[in-house]
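Q: Could you fold this chain for me?
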Amino acid sequence: MRASALLFAGAVTSALTLVAAGTAAAEPANTMPQDGVYLVGVDILPGVWEAPGTPDPAFGCDWRRLWKVEGDNTNMQNILANNFTRLSPVRVEIKPTDVAFKTENCGPWRLLPPRPHTGSFGG
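A: Sure. Below is the predicted structure, expressed as structure tokens.
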């Protein structure tokens, strides 16, 4: 009876270890491959991002920095900054204090490397 109880306890411990290991959070990405809403610090890193812009001039690249994620994210009260442009490339600084970033028809985004410090005041 004791051996089966120990065996059962060992199996439960192993299962819990596997479940805990499987739910470990992934690191935030430095790319946004497609349209969508990305959570800052969870899905993506803050920083300066660049996208090629829209491939079709009939449409524009629409991006939004959000302080709140809610519904379809068209509520202007939730938008910190946004732009609709047909220019390329497109650049935006996503701040660590932003909650999320929404992109539509901009192409894949990539995080640019940080600028080197110049050693002068402010840089």
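A (continued): Confidence is low (pLDDT under 50) at residues 3-22.
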